Amino acid sequence: MIPTPHNGAKSGDIAKTVLMPGDPLRAKFIAETYLEDVVCFNTVRNMLGFTGTYKGKRVSVMGGGMGMPSIGIYSYELYHFYDVDNIIRIGSAGGIADDIKLRDIVIGMGASTNSNFAAQYQLPGTFAPIADFGLLRKAVETAEKKNIKTVVGNILSSDTFYDDNSNANSLWRKMNILAVEMEAAALYMNAARAGKKALCILTISDHVFTGESLSAEDRQLTFRDMMEIALEIA
Ligand SMILES: O=P(O)(O)O[C@H]1O[C@H](CO)[C@@H](O)[C@H]1O
Ligand SMILES: O=c1cc[nH]c(=O)[nH]1
What we know:
Catalyzes the reversible phosphorolytic breakdown of the N-glycosidic bond in the beta-(deoxy)ribonucleoside molecules, with the formation of the corresponding free purine bases and pentose-1-phosphate. By secondary structure, the protein is α/β, with parallel strands linked by helices. It has a single domain, classed as Nucleoside phosphorylase domain (Rossmann fold), CATH 3.40.50. It has helices spanning 24-34, 68-81, 133-145, 168-174, 184-194, 216-233, and strands at residues 17-20, 36-42, 49-54, 57-62, 86-95, 105-113, 150-157, 179-181, 197-207. Strand 2 and strand 3 form a beta hairpin. The radius of gyration is 17 Å and the shape is globular. The two termini are 26 Å apart. Bound molecules: 1-O-phosphono-alpha-D-ribofuranose and uracil (URA). 1-O-phosphono-alpha-D-ribofuranose is lined by residues 21-23, 66, 91-92, 161, 181-183.
């Protein structure tokens, strides 16, 4: 079923590993900054996707949009229709745990969620969405080699950015959730169901409780550490 309603790529246009920021312009930035011999494979809905080489390895980078329905569509199509094996989400997140600071890189070993995405599987219990251990280990080792600190643990994938329940994040904090973002749980579920691999690496752009947030310039600079870790393990 390719091209799909959401992806104009043809068979073979996409590498086995795809880096997936939420923002398609971040995908363009990565392609222009780090990749050689770049080809743009998707412009449908401006959800830009590129394939090129990084240090001789073929790698793709594509926006995934905001929220679980969006990354759910793009990652499903990549795994099932484009033969992609690994998707590494690289995103921004809000700090929740007290010891998480602006610019920290958080790796989602697990992704708790308030979403109903898992209902489709009709499981007789609660599914725990987790990262691929091999990708996780490589990311941590690569960061250590680069002298970049990472914090590994449980994150929250939320359906809401603006939430009417002002107490919700305090409740998640009690369960040692490190940070909140909006996609990893669906990505991890799609990977599990497809028998493929996924990882979510995040940079803390703001803190839910202190209200601090990074400037646009600071984001650009600190996001590069996360991008380089993802590119190295691709
Ligand atoms: O920076 P990205 O990857 O878009 O990730 C975070 O930013 C968006 C919200 O501002 C959500 O998509 C959230 O998951
Ligand atoms: O989803 C997100 C991303 C960044 N900051 C937040 O508070 N939430």
